[in-house]
Amino acid sequence: MHAACGFEWVEGEIASLKRAPSGHAYFQLKDEREEAVLDCVMYKFYAARARRFLSEGARVQLSGRATIYAARGRLQYVAEALRPAGRGALLEALEQLKQRLAAEGLFDPARKRPLPPDPRVVGVVTSRSGAALHDITSVAFRRANVTLVLAAALVQGDEAPRSLVRALDKLERYPGLDVVIIGRGGGSAEDLMAFNDERLVRRVASMQVPVVSAVGHEVDISLTDFAADVRAATPSQAAELVVPDRRSRVRALDDQTRHLGRAMRTRLIEARVEVDRLRTRIGDPRFYLAERQQLLDDARSDLERSLARRIRERRQALERLYRRVLLQHPTAVLSRAHAAMAPLDARLHGAMRAKLAASRGRLSERLTRIEALSPLAVLGRGYAIARDLEGKVITDAAALSEGERVNVRLRQGQFMASVEAREPEKELQGS
Asked: Which residues does 9 contact at the CB level (< 8 Å), separation at least 6?
């Protein structure tokens, strides 16, 4: 049940923003100068339209009604319209910077490094006169014996980003540095703007040791928180995260020592039981060794017999191969070849003699026939062959002239003759 108190415009900074599953937005509107806080609610149908500017830390102007929420008996402002005021453009630029740095991977959870389990040197970047330094030193020295190295810097104002970056540069050169805490106490959004500076955010992301960001309070979040390896809600919590509690660790070590002692005693008892069981199972080791020696002797005898059999078999195989090699020796091969050739040689000579005799008979017969047909045989009966000087046979005396020389072939030899006269054919036939 609500009681309306009038329609007003109010201006302030959004804090403690919560979006309910119903779609309604609940937040506080802060006035830094008066340190006043007004509870506000923007119902779903209005919050959807104002979603772009409805963000933590935004300075806005609200149009709505101041009402009394009877269920809790408190004043709340029911906002129906929202518009950026004062730092709206600055917040929008800050959101764009956040998205750009996130796209570069500076806020990637995969690059976050774990804190060292037992740091010896802890660097602190904060104001020398602020409450944050007191909170960090009080908690750290109470929890353990560590070395705190302060790099004092401005934590608000235009020169704060450059001062914070120089402090980080100095700390990184400090020998043996294990981890760094950077932060300040709470404040307005304007007071925390130095920790949204791009130069500082990039320097925190590039540190060689893990960085814990402790900027503002639980509801205050800066870009440095996203770039750091670990975010702490307050400087005191940062010291608790970085410096392990000595007393807690001593108690934990004592507990682990007692647990280890009990475990060792239990393990020794179990080992003794196991040794007794094995001793009973094994019995007298001399008999055990004697049995194994007997098995070894049997194995040696089997091996010797097997080896002798293998040698004998190999020797027999070698002898067989040797005999086969002897059979294939060139001398043996030649002897067998000579023995096989002897009858063949005799057969060959007999065949050659028979062939020669038959050939001689056929040759003699053919010579007889040739001699019978040979002109020499005719010449042997008293005839002669006359040729002129050109070697042509003279068959007609009319072809000769007186004084012409002719060659006369007889049965045995030949001679030259000269034509003295030609006789008529009749006279030649009459003779």
From this structure: 61, 62, 63
Residue keyed to tokens 């119902």? 43
> What homologous superfamily does CATH list for 93-244?
Hypothetical protein af1403; domain 2 (3.40.50.10550)
Surface-to-core class of residue 10, CB atoms within 10 Å of its CB (0-12 exposed, 13-18 middle, 19+ buried)? middle
Q: Is 293 left (phi over 0), alpha (psi -120 to 50) or beta?
A: alpha
Rounded Cα–Cα distance for residues 204 and 431 (Å): 163
Domain ranges of the chain: 2-86, 93-244, 379-430
Q: Which fold has domain 2-86?
A: OB fold (Dihydrolipoamide Acetyltransferase, E2P) (2.40.50)
Place of tokens 């507990």: 255
Smallest CA-to-CA distance from 183 within 126, 221, 107 is with 126
218 has a pLDDT exceeding 80:
no
Query: In terms of pTM, does the model score above 0.70?
Result: no
- 87 falls in which pLDDT band (50, 70, 90)? low
90 pLDDT above the threshold of 70: no
